[in-house]
Design a protein that fits this description.
2 domains, alpha/beta, 22 strands, about 500 residues, globular, Rossmann fold, 6-stranded mixed beta sheet
Length: about 500
């Protein structure tokens, strides 16, 4: 085995009340992708911040090409050829593409000023070399889509001749085609000898693009090796510390009477003639490709937007959902896909986030009862296995998966009749997914009705009693989820592909 480009040994990092990293090790090799795998809260984000000079380890050493280095700041990591590409691109919208690529190391004129012509020329060369010549260096970053912003972040890495590239959930906001384009780019980076750390919750991506893996659990390194030698179930067991043979829980819920009916719901630009029913104790899956209109329908049911026509009935009675407050009062709640923007209040602690919609229930004579607030929060966060140092911890400091659990707990505390889950496990690890899926099973077992919007076929197949497929704002098909339904059928429905006869 060749010498690693970067190695960590004995790295530990503690915060008040939390040991985020405990004697961990990691090796990255030139021309290879190493996948860093772990549940939310396993220490992955702390490690990335350590590698990029944001955090300084309490113990241990970092070596590049066998030499011990000290990463005192993000600039020092940058100087040593370490760069990171995050799920949310850390770039500047009001600056041009070229300025973002060469920020901090722009070419200078002989007078010491920035040489704009040279910077644009160099940026064009870098972009063309990585197959992104369609991006103009003079374009303002805010005019680009998410996928092209990722390309600019990669171009920045190439412009400093970075030898160590960290990719933290780079595909979370990308379409299928954009993900494929990114994988082509990663292969290009490998061919140039870059050592790549790839962080993802998606096992299909990990097995597709990575050569090696390292698994973290509870701040420690619990396993590593070659992916070619390691079955998926073996890695999952390392992640969660237990066997996960059956990711989707068996459910023994009885489906009862109709609870919700939607008839000919339409919106001028988003969806048309949407009709379906939901029964007590049922999980109704909504599947479709990006842009199919699924989330827009759910937002209309929650009163975010006003449909142009159609009728919604709850327990057989018409309801007029002019606002989210109307929906909540009627017993319909919505867990949004964009939890950061629509789900949690980042600057509030966990207990205040969870109690927000239920203040009237935990108050007495107009005064908020703190003990009731904590009791309510504790009940639902414990059932969802929330990972936090305390219920007073601010939501902004939690991982994406734990923020998602806060949002679900907040709405479940209102004791709704219908809960709409829009991409409920997007961007969270497999252990957290299992907890959410198990809790969904508990909810319908107690008589709650669930609408689940998901782009993940295994989740749709594993959790739904029935599946509705949408395409271009319309319902295309409805299937009972029994042994005759397969993933290929749903994909064909969603993409509008006719089945070819054998």
């Amino acid at each position: 085995m060749s010498q690693p480009k970067l190695s960590l040994s004995g790295i530990s990092k503690s915060f008040p009340g939390v040991r985020a990293l405990d004697d961990v090790s990691l090796e990255l090799y030139s021309g290879e992708v190493t996948a860093l795998i772990g549940e939310n809260g396993a220490g992955k984000s702390t490690l990335v911040k350590t590698l990029t000079g944001i955090y300084h380890p309490d113990e241990g050493e970092i070596r590049i090409d066998g030499e011990v280095v000290t990463l005192t700041s993000p600039h020092s990591a940058f100087e040593l050829g370490i760069t990171a590409i995050h799920q949310e691109t850390v770039l500047f919208d009001e600056m041009s593409v070229a300025e973002n690529i060469y920020l901090g190391h722009a070419p200078k004129t002989r007078f010491g000023t920035i040489d704009l012509r040279a910077m644009h020329s160099k940026a064009k060369t870098v972009l063309e070399g990585m197959g992104a010549g369609h991006i103009e260096p003079a374009t303002l970053l805010k005019e680009l889509g998410i996928a092209n912003k990722h390309l600019v972040a990669v171009a920045r890495a190439l412009s400093i001749e970075a030898q160590i590239v960290i990719m933290d959930e780079p595909t979370a906001s990308l379409s299928h085609k954009e993900i494929e384009d990114l994988f082509v780019l990663i292969e290009h980076l490998k061919s140039e000898g870059k050592a790549i750390l790839f962080i993802s919750h998606k096992f299909d991506e990990i097995y597709r693009i990575a050569d090696r893996y390292t698994v973290f659990r509870d701040g420690g390194m619990v396993g590593k090796g070659l992916l070619a030698d390691s079955p998926q179930n073996e890695i999952i067991q390392l992640m969660v510390g237990r066997s996960v043979d059956q990711i989707f829980p068996a459910r023994d819920s009885s489906i009862g009477e109709q609870v919700l009916s939607v008839s000919q719901l339409s919106h001028p630009t988003e969806f048309h003639d949407i009709s379906f029913e939901l029964r007590q104790g049922e999980i109704l899956g909504f599947y479709g490709l990006v842009g199919a209109g699924r989330s827009e329908v759910m937002q209309a049911l929650f009163g975010f937007t006003r449909p142009s026509r159609g009728q919604v009935r709850l327990d057989g009675k018409p309801v007029n959902l002019k606002s989210p407050a109307d929906a909540i009062k009627a017993g319909i709640v919505y867990v949004p896909e964009e939890r950061g923007k629509q789900g949690v209040v980042a600057d509030l602690p966990i207990f205040q986030n969870v109690s927000l919609p239920s203040l009237h229930e935990i108050s007495k004579n107009g005064f908020l009862q703190l003990a009731n607030e904590f009791a309510l929060t504790r009940e639902y966060t414990e059932r969802l296995d929330l990972r936090a140092s305390s219920l007073s911890q601010h939501a902004a400091t939690l991982s994406g998966g734990n923020q998602q659990k806060i949002v679900i707990a907040k709405w479940l505390a209102t004791r709704p009749r219908v809960i709409i889950l829009d991409e409920p496990t997007k961007g969270i690890d497999i252990g957290s997914k299992a907890a959410v899926h198990e809790f969904m099973g508990d909810l319908v077992g107690q008589g709650l009705s669930v609408v689940m919007v998901s782009s993940e076929l295994p989740e749709i197949m594993g959790m739904s009693d029935r599946v509705i497929v949408m395409r271009e704002g319309k319902i295309i098909a409805e299937h009972i989820n029994d042994e005759t339904l397969d993933a290929a059928t749903l994909l064909r429905d969603a993409a509008g592909i006719e089945e070819v006869a054998a």
